[in-house]
Amino acid sequence: GFGLTHTLPRLIGQQRANLMFLTGRRVKAEDGLAWGLVDEVVPLDQLLSVAKALALEIAENAPLAVVATRKTLRGDLAKAVRDQTNHEHGQQTVLRATEDFAEGVRAVQERRAGNFKGK
Asked: pLDDT grade, residue 23 (50/70/90)?
């Protein structure tokens, strides 16, 4: 959902995105840094101050140039994400009507692995 099937492969590469999507595997911070998924890894007690410092660094630049750069970098991202989100919604609508969906919900509620049948 959320258009991630469009944005994530463009950020970290199709193979790594496939790995994340198909396994649901969590990514360690260090791997996320190496993959370009995060910009910095900092201790939790420094997170807010580092984030504020980054925001200040950006804010010190010419605001019109920052806005123009963001628009240039994003291009038609909003439309592409909207189109992909519509596609994802269609897939999710179909899947919600399956036995596997109901089993997945029960498995999460019961804190156990799912017993999926492909139905």
From this structure: very high
Which contacts qualify for 102-107: CB closer than 8 Å, 24 or more apart? none
Residue 98: inside a domain, yes or no?
yes
Is residue 79 classed exposed, middle or buried when 0-12, 13-18 and 19+ CB atoms within 10 A define those classes? exposed
Whether 118 is in a domain gets the answer no
Residue 2 — very low, low, confident or very high, per pLDDT cuts 50/70/90? Answer: confident
Give the C-alpha separation, 45 to 88, whole Å: 37
pTM: 0.63
Q: What is the pLDDT of residue 1?
A: 63
Handedness of CA 31, 34, 39, 44 (dihedral sign): positive
Residue 13 lies in a domain: yes
Q: Are 84 and 5 in contact (CB under 8 A)?
A: yes
